[in-house]
Design brief:
This protein has one helix at residues 127-134, and strands spanning 8-10, 36-38, 46-53, 62-70, 75-76, 85-86, 108-117, 138-148. It has 162 residues and is mainly beta. It is globular, with a radius of gyration of 15 Å. This is YbhB/YbcL family Raf kinase inhibitor-like protein.
Length: 162
């Protein structure tokens, strides 16, 4: 899959390679962070977004959030847009699940990946099904990574709503 030449995904709530604010985790309000996409390439028909934790003690990591049908536009992702569909996370739920790694398991990295696709995703496949079925349709991809360490959740620095 081609890496990004101009495609960017970011969040006003999360800084790359920095700690997740607690309100976006399972230890807090479990609120889904806002996402903004820019640099969408010509020819993209839709975007797909995956949030996963490859450090989770599972064979394929842990999928926290899947979004399909995101319009191929430079803008904030509108979760109320009727074209946006939420795919199944690792728990089988069609919802965002914030970081909540096992206590004492150390730092977990959370990858937010955006895929600009040349075709429309059919239905709401799992992350594994999506990657297998649509790899050839990826025009461009980009990602950012944030982290969370659960054993530190009582640290006052982690209780801000930043």
């Amino acid at each position: 899959m081609p890496e990004s030449a101009g495609l960017v995904i970011r969040s006003p709530h999360l800084q790359p390679l920095e700690l997740f604010p607690v309100r976006f985790t399972g230890d807090g309000a479990n609120a889904a962070p806002s996402l903004v996409v820019s640099g969408v390439p010509a020819g993209a028909t839709e975007l797909a977004i995956v949030m996963d934790d490859p450090d989770a003690p599972l064979p394929h990591g842990f999928t926290h959030w899947l979004l399909y049908g995101v319009p191929a536009l430079d803008r904030a992702v509108d979760l109320d847009d009727p074209s946006v569909r939420v795919g199944p996370n690792t728990m089988g739920e069609r919802a965002y699940i914030g970081p909540m790694p096992p206590r004492g398991h150390g730092r977990h990295h959370y990858f937010f990946q955006v895929y600009a696709l040349s075709e429309t995703v059919d239905g709401e496949p799992s992350r594994e099904e999506f990657l297998a079925r649509y790899a050839a349709s990826v025009i461009e991809q980009s990602r950012f990574v944030a982290y969370y360490e659960r054993f530190r959740h009582e640290d006052p620095a982690m209780t801000t709503d930043a």
